[in-house]
Amino acid sequence: VQLQASGGGLVQAGDSLRLSCAASGRTFSSGTMAWFRQAPGKEREFVAALRWSDGSTFYADFVKGRFTISRADAKDTVNLQMDTLEPEDTAIYFCAARPSYSHSYYQAPSYSWWGQGTQVTVSS
Known about the structure:
Elements: E1 2-6, E2 9-12, E3 17-24, E4 32-38, E5 45-51, E6 57-59, E7 67-71, E8 77-82, E9 91-98, E10 113-114, E11 118-123
């Protein structure tokens, strides 16, 4: 399975960005796809996840309703719409996938596949 992340960039505080993650090599009819992020000097942290079977979504508390994870029109692709971005959101964003749902969806080691990461920089 390969995951291709795209959509990062440099924006100002308050702006929006949409990240996309396209999976190839597998159909995620029952899996989970997620986004994590890692800022310089910090550990990788969970951002959001989507359970493919029913579209249920899960978010980190710091998202505070600013981010939305959703299925894209393209097959096996998820988007992360990020609104009202803050400088603290600056990080490399990674998409991840696993072949099934787990209550450990917020833990990075539970994911089988990872994308290459896309840089998001928010200036103040």
